[in-house]
Every structure is written in structure tokens, then in C-alpha cells.
Amino acid sequence: MFRSLHQGTSNYLCQTVTTSYVFLSLLSNFDLMLDYVTEKAHDESRQGEAFAPFAADPNEYRRRFYIESYGCQMNFSDSEIVASILNDQGFGATPNYQEADLVLINTCSIREKAEQTIRKRLNEFKKLKQNKPGMLVGVLGCMAERLKSKFLEEEQLVDIVVGPDAYRSLPALVEEAETGQKAVNVLLSREETYADISPVRLDSNGVTAFVSIMRGCNNMCSFCVVPFTRGRERSRDAVSIVNECQKLFDSGYREVTLLGQNVDSYYWPIPDPTQREGPSDTLASPKGDTSNNVDSPKSEVGGWNPSPLGELEGAVVTFAKLLGKCALISPLLRIRFSTSHPKDITDDVLYTMAKYENICRYIHLPVQSGSTRILQLMNRTYTREWYKAKVNRIREIMPDCGISSDIIAGFCTETEEDHSDTLDIMGYSRYDMSYMFIYSERPGTLAQKRYADDVAGEIKKRRLIEIVALQNRLSLESNKKDIGKIFNVLIEGDSKKSAADWMGRNTQNKVIVFPKRDENLKKGDYVMVKVNDCTQATLMGEIEYLKIKN
Q1: Average pLDDT value for residue range 369-388
Q2: Of 401, 332, 404, which is closest to residue 5 (Cα–Cα)?
Q3: Does one domain contain both 233 and 271?
Q4: How far is residue 306's CA from residue 320's CA, in Å, rounded to a whole number?
């Protein structure tokens, strides 16, 4: 089974499914390039999605902006931050680029096909500018640093280039570009997390949302461009994360996915209260939670009772602690996260997941290869034996936990024995689903500099076919085991195939489709569903009884 992330997610949350037959036809074009994105795989159905204004926006705007997003879920999350910054400057969103004064593309540099698509779109916008000379075109995100000179000077496709850490400067860059100057800011930051910016949510289902908890990456996987395009790792302050999750819950959302390139390395030192003042000096506690609350003052922010940090001086908020704080917001708020690096996920995280029912029993644990030799070349810093032990530990603490993975076929020097090791570890781990890709080197990566991309294209294709076929079988076997079981399902909306059916997910992140019947249900409600059939991609069931109606 070949799936793309719906959310996260980064992200990483399977929304689209392609059968082996269709997948093989895609391979014939050889346009499926490496799509490794740590915490998120690309949802093909969302590529090029335009930011839509929220419904019934009562505001009047002088100028309109259009933003189109490509790549991973982190890019889509960043587009929400950009929308917030532009809104504050009097720009209103439009889903129609022809009526926009400012056209932006949030770009991805991890996948070659995405770069080709983005370049094509920029040429289309360039033609539009000939009839609308006042319109500005800008490139955001991961392609900004690497291709800024080509876009601005050689090909003259854009007016503005902004890197992932420079979105706050966008209004000033727009002003500069309006004078006829080319405006650029691609500086990376060791501090920027956009923690104080409240994202303007994409026109989503109103049930699920993403919350970015960190930016950048310190892992130097040899095939990955993220450390070079998004900079070093830095964690967003825990207070703003928990408060954002609370506000989403208060607004009717019932699931949040915590996003980061490597969420398990989240690390936020709690500030010394004698050195700082204001709301950022407190670690918020949800209503009714007094675990951190010692005669704490009341706050009007999001209905929280923050507690002084003096009692926790010198402490840090780890990812396990952050998960627990988010889970305490409400039992009605599901918590997911994406993605985990196998070397960093700890027992503390696993025990926290097991403790709270509303932290979903699902971990995306990218293996990339089952060969220890290839893992060393990839600089993944673990062996196949170490990875298998981590899978054992997850299932020991949470026997019902779903596990998915990323797998690369045909990395540099990969032999048939290395490939067999990958197939073997897939069978051992029994992944519910995987994101499977052919390797192609990306400019600027360590692998591109150090190793020859020496596995023939036809061999890569054949190995990927074998990987996909095995995963299809594992996915079907996993789903068949769920027949007869009853799951708590969060309704996300209508089924894609029929408005007479609901679609939702269980805690293991499996899609479940079931008839609506006559119950007065709506998106965001929880319902217990008994599975009576399945495909390799989807569970089918019937409502057993209502769990909780919101």
C-alpha cells in the first residue's frame, strides 16, 4: 500500500491510496523521486493546494494575496503562518490567483518533481504579470536559498524570495519589491519558531489541525536537504504550544498533530521566573489539572490557570512532558505527532502515550533501510538490530500501537543482500503502512557529495515494486486482524465515495468508513464502530453505539 499523509505530519495520516497496479504505471515514467521528509510525507492530493480564506470573512481588504503550497505538511503549516503575517498587514486571502496582488508559492526542495512543477507554475505567473504589471510574485520555503539567483536574476521569474526563517520580514520585502527592487531574505535562524504568531487556519475540515512545535533539524542524514534548507533544530516554547492546542479545542477542533522534523528531540528549558516576566514565564495547565498548580494566579488567556515556574527552576520540558500537557487539555482532544527518529524516541514518550487514552496509539518510525551497512552510509546512527529492539519495546509497552515507516529503494551502493535486509525488517516490524520511494540524489546533500548514485534505474524500480508488494500484503493482513473489533472513531467528514457514509480514523490512524444511519451525528463527534470488512487501505464498519457527542 502506498499512502500520502492527510495531515501529518508532517507531516505525518494517510489520505490517498494507490494500488500496486497504478503505482507500477507511475514507475514507468520514473518521476517518483526521493520524497524523504522526516516528520511528513507528501500528500499528493494537496500538492499545489491554494490557501483558502476562512468562510464568511467579514473584513474588507485593500490587497489580496494568493499562496500555493507544495511538499510536506510543514510547508502547509508555514503557509498558515504567512497568511497570519499578511492578514496583519491588511492583505486578504483569495483562492483565485488572477485577482491577487501578491502571488506566493511555498516550495519544496526535497522532491525533484515538485521543483519541476513549481518552475512551471512560476512561468505561468510570469505570463500573467505581463497583463497585470503591478502583481508581485514570490517564492517561499526550501527552494529559496538554493535557487534564489536563478529565480531572481537568470530566469527573472520572481520579485521576492523568502526563506523558512524570514517570514516576519515579508511585509517589508513586499514594500521593497513594490519600488521595483528585487527583495530577498533567506537567512536561517537559530532562534525563530514563530511561537507568538497565531496561524490563520487553512480551510480545513474544522476537526483536525497541525501545531508546529519545533523547526529545523540537527540530524545530518546523508540523503536529506532539510538541515540545509531549514537550519538547525530549535524548540518552540511549551506555553505557546499548549495554549494554541487549547484554543483549537475551544474552536471546535478535536485532533491536533504536533509537527517537527524530529519531535522526540523537543527540548525547552523552563525560564527562570526571576529573569523574565509575563505570560511566557508560566507553563499553562488545563482546566481542572492541578499537577503544576500551587496557588497559581488565574489568567484570561484561553481559560488557563498558569502556574509559576519557580518550583520547576532548572527543569526542562521534554517531548514526553509536552505530550502529557497537551493530553490534559481535554479527553475529547486527540493528540498525534509526527515524526519520530528511531534513535530519539524514549520510554518516557511510550509510557506517556500508554497513560493517556487520547494520545493516539500510532508512531511513524522511519527505517529507510533494513541494512546496517546502508544505514551507516545514510548516517542514521542506528543498526537494524537496534531498530528491531525499538519496535519490540513499542509493542511491549503498547501492544495495540500502529507503526508506519519510510523506506528508500536503491540508495547508493545498495546490493541485493541489502535489499533483502529491507524486506526482512518490513516483515519483522509488520508495518500498517509505509511511504516508499526510489532514491535520487538531491543537490547539496552529503550523499550527493560523497557517494556515487550507482544503482541502475531499472534495479531501483524492481526493488521498489517488491517493497510495495510486500507492504500491500502487510497492510491487508493488518486490516484483516481488525475485523470484528470495535474502535472509537473521530468523524472527520463525509466519505470520499459517498455522502451517505462517514469517514473517520481510529487511534491507530486507520481510515474507517461506515454508514451514517439516522443518528444525529456531525463532524467532530466520536462514535464506536465495529469493523466488518476491509481493503488493504480502508476498514469498513457499522455504528455499534455512540461514544461522545460534542
Answers
A1: 98
A2: 404
A3: yes
A4: 19
